[in-house]
Write a structure and sequence with these properties.
Length: 516
Amino acid sequence: MTERVLIVDFGSQVTQLIARRVRESGVYCEIHPFHKVDGAFLAAFAPKAIILSGGPASVTETDTPRAAPEIFTLGVPVLGICYGQQTMMAQMGGRVEGSDHREFGRAFVEVDGTCGLFDGVWSHGDRHQVWMSHGDRVIELAPGFRPVAVTEGAPFAAVADDEKKLYGVQFHPEVVHTPHGAALLRNFTHTIAGCRGDWTMAAFREQAIAKVRAQVGKGRVICGLSGGVDSSVAAVLLHEAIGEQLVCVFVDTGLLRLNEADEVVELFRGHYNIPLVAKDASDIFLAKLDGVTDPERKRKIIGATFIDVFDEAAKEAGGADFLAQGTLYPDVIESVSFAGGPSVTIKSHHNVGGLPERMKMALVEPLRELFKDEVRALGRELGLPERLVGRHPFPGPGLGVRIPGAVSRERADILRKADAIFIEEIRAAGLYDAIWQAFAVLLPVQTVGVMGDARTYDFACALRAVTSTDGMTADYYPFAHDFLGRVANRIINEVRGINRVTYDITSKPPGTIEWE
Ligand code: XMP
């Protein structure tokens, strides 16, 4: 069985980063909210080690989160980070107090002891940068613990009970601003907890295939392909697991990128020989969008139409017992939210949302344990072409949200050509992988220009390229001016219908990545 580490979430903004670091060291781990982790949960999960995350609450108040007491008596190594350290100390007989000296951001620890966590990384007398974010601090250690590092604001920046293999750090080893953080976490999982670190994509592939076979048996599975990384990797993995029991459905909404529909059909039907129902529903989508200008209405129409068309296509394909989805781990983590209340909807997202309810089929989600870059690694492991595996994200509603104002086939065709030129130039300049997402937007304004000796009155187009790590925040990509000039020149010369090109330099926030 795969060895696994349990991360108990107390609501920190960076809990997912703990999971990232642990997985990068070759150890499988899962995040679960603190209130779900009790004795029975621990017995079933059988962790090799436990990490308690940080969190926004204060241990000095009653009714704030606590760790299940069984965590400390299970006999497996435990590492408490920030709030996790504080609650561990408080629960085991130490003391925590609110402090006037709050520490946020960069701090320096003085290493004044040795412990398993520091093995081969930090030595007695060293001084190292760490990242802090806390108000409260531990002022009295629980019995059995000794301090091993201090900062100005935290007398117990790191504490250890090597005998019981219990550790606590006030700083955040999971963030990149703690330069040795990953090495410390690796010491915890490998040296202290004895994990082998054999969580690789090759191992995952074998396990995932066995799991799909066990779940599906002789049943039929239908999988929607979007042309993106997640659904493509899911489909190829499923095909390897159950062969002809898989049928894929690809819907051409009329809002895809240039040649995208042909490429998907060629790759899956042609190269992989996967049964594929490809449906050109562009007339239906474009008819429903006719004259609609409100961004949210467009999104709703595209989402609802997709469900109808997919349902039809599924029937044509002979029906199925299971619906496969490329759901990823960030979508399924039930993180603790302290924000309170529902958050405002900025955009209603459309992937295949709503399909499971409508189709009433059991779900197969072979990627639900993976982060995005792990899906890419799995795609490479499965031999998918690099061009697909490394592809920029593309929104479910496609070009529908890149044509502000009314959408038409004519406008989508113009946009497709401009977009393709922009991407081609980005690839040629070797910049594709340095950019999170790049695309063109067709603006609903016509401007006057002069070409040859004639007056033109055509659309303006905006180029957008951003860097980001998760799509939540983003900055515009600082292209050289001659690059932008070259792209603008090509678009205006080669795309009939566009006579002006602008570059969008808005960051997110306050902008969003897509224009609608
Ligand atoms: P925004 O525009 O909200 O986009 O800054 C953040 C990221 O999400 C993508 N996006 C979508 N992805 N369905 C998706 O699967 C959608 O409806 C959708 N809307 C935006 C966007 O391309 C960017 O990567």
